[in-house]
Amino acid sequence: MTEEEKRQIVPTGSVVCVGDTKFLVAGYRTVETDGKNAPAYVLLPWPYGYLNRKTVFICPLSGITGLQGEGYRGEEEEPWPGQMEGLLPVGSIVRHKEAPDIRYMIAGYYPAVADEIRDYAAVRYPVGLSAATRLELFDQDKISSVLFVGYQDEASKSILRRIPEFMQRTGELMRETEELLQQIQDLTGEGNDNVDREDPFSIRME
Prior knowledge:
five-stranded antiparallel sheet, alpha+beta
């Protein structure tokens, strides 16, 4: 990796653009480009985060067209002074009451990867989502402190307010999810050749 590439890399939890579409940077890997290994991001759809394995994307640094919001750089260890009202946005960095020495990044909500539903799916920070990663599932009351609040705009705040309602209305949630997956499939078709839909991960649960 060149020094220029290192300078370009943004921290886990950042929100980047591929064309007009926003993604959460959930981790890092390398891809082969022109016979050489090149750095790439592991991306999740923003502001939803991880929904299932079909929503994990790989994009080389060269495919990123913009930075919407930079993630946590680990420079501040003081807890965020605000109050949690509703769900935290993806990209937020938290500590868990039962693992106070580990920092977690919120990567999704109510994931469909386990029989037991929790509020959040999270990955360890700063490693993020990788081939050796397992998703950690926990509820909001297990969070001991918030170190960083992920990027939000008014539209994403509205979505976060609606997510608990979706969980109570399963039929509507499934329709919304199917529509989202179809939109992602459409976005990764013609005009989005920089994004690879192949999921290389085998995600383990505790």
